[in-house]
Amino acid sequence: MAMDHTVKVILGSIAFGIFWLLAVFPAIPFLPIGRTAGSLLGAMLMVLFRVLTPDQAYAAIDLPILGLLFGTMVVSVYLERADMFKYLGKVLSWKSKGAKDLICRVCLISAISSALFTNDTSCVVLTEFVLKIAKQHNLPPRPFLLALASSANIGSSATPIGNPQNLVIAVQSGIPFGQFVIGILPAMLVGIVVNALIILISYWKLLSIQKDEEDVPPEIVADEDVNSHRFSPARLSHSQIPSLNSQEWDSRLDSMYAQSPPNSNANVETLRTSLSSKDNEIHWSHGAVTEAVARISDASKECVPNASPPPQKREEGLSSKSFNSMDKQKEPLPLQVSEGKQHWSTKWRRMAWKCCVYLVTIGMLVALLMGLNMSWTAVTAALALVVLDFKDAQPCLEKVSYSLLVFFCGMFITVDGFNKTGLPNTFWNFMEPHAQIDRVSGTVVLALVILYLSNLASNVPTVLLLGARVAASAAAISPAQEKRAWLLLAWISTVAGNLSLLGSAANLIVCEQARRTPQLSYNLSFWNHLKFGLPSTLIITGIGLVLIK
């Protein structure tokens, strides 16, 4: 592609530069509009500067990639509703054998869930789990957060649906789902093991001390708290506090009210009002409220010491109370039976629906492995779950990240416009002689270029800019080398996200989720991540260069 006119090159570079600036620094002070608006601004400038015509801009949007991304997000939402991630949390904390065992579990579960449900989704859901488990065992959160983010990136490289750049590569290369997985899976498995070893070696002393040196609160988190997380904002459960419901307390207070003298009725009413006003906010402690009721009862006895009825009336009262209590026990029995049947009916319907969600998801994965169209397979699975839910789908569809889809639309247009300036082609023409993947030195040079650009311009734009050029250069050698070039691009651009905190959206999600989690807040700094990320990225990238054939 020959260089375009100088004015078009300059204007196209300005538009791409604005897009890059807002993609990397979304809250920049002089234009804090975010990544999504930044991508749309870059796309609009490409059209206004006449780098692209409106028809070319529309044609640049890759609908199969958007369909695949949308379908996988909807499936992830329904899997979350079916408690898939709750079960993953239980696996994390089940029969744990110490800090090192927990690190290995976090690495393994993060990698598997990211390969199947995308790395961003896994990080959103599992970050709070990891913080709660670290607090439960009185361990420092940093190594666990690093294990979660880095393993999510490594694990997501194994499948086309693991991350956005793999979606782009799978669609553009035409590599079948099964061949993609077989090509990268060995490197992913070895990479996860090596990544876990690097974390264990780096934090061995810290993990050997059952004392958190970073001021994590000393309270112990119950297992049920760890396992009861939902996709919604974090909250600590109070289900372990023994309590009585409001109806039981009302019946107790009514009996006290009838037996108490007038001057103590005010105390009873005060307690009743306090209980009812707090009923929807917190669960009262059984012991505390029982003690309060006992104090009021003692006070009433002191005020009327001889208020007991005559023996004959007391016997009549006892007999009538016994008769009434028997009647009360007999009356609600049919209602209890019907409520029990309704409870079991609801429970079985819920279990059947969960099984349907899991079966549809498995069917989607099988269809992808069989080589069916990835985009339509994901969309079909998503719509099947919507129909099986048999409810208004709006609440579930609202959880889809439409801002991400819009970001991709703007990015497709902006990158296509930048390609038409000729600058990426000029850069590749300079690098191509030194980056031939049939030589060891060429493969290393290509890896360093992708690592650098993935952290400079983000991994998805890097794939869009270099993917076709790298593949065409490798295709001139052999078809097998072309396939290897696409797989290496997927591996390197994904693992490159572990180098720095800004290298991957998954890293930023873990950092922000950890910082904002109530009562468990932890700040993962840029330098703490870089000290681990730099050696880990270089070593694991090298593993892929050797194992991906």
Automatic annotation (TrEMBL):
It is found in: Cell membrane. Residues 301-332 are annotated as: Disordered. GO terms for cellular component: plasma membrane. Residues 27-496 form the Citrate transporter-like domain. It is a multi-pass membrane protein. The chain crosses the membrane at residues 7-27, 33-52, 59-79, 180-204, 355-388, 440-457, 487-510, 530-548. Pfam families: CitMHS. Keywords: Cell membrane, Membrane, Transmembrane, Transmembrane helix, Transport. The keyword Amino-acid biosynthesis does not apply. Its main location: membrane. Signal peptide: none annotated. The keyword Transcription does not apply. GO terms for biological process: transmembrane transport. It comes from the Eukaryota. This is Silicon efflux transporter CmLsi2-1. The lineage of its organism: Eukaryota, Viridiplantae, Streptophyta, Embryophyta, Tracheophyta. The gene is CmLsi2-1.
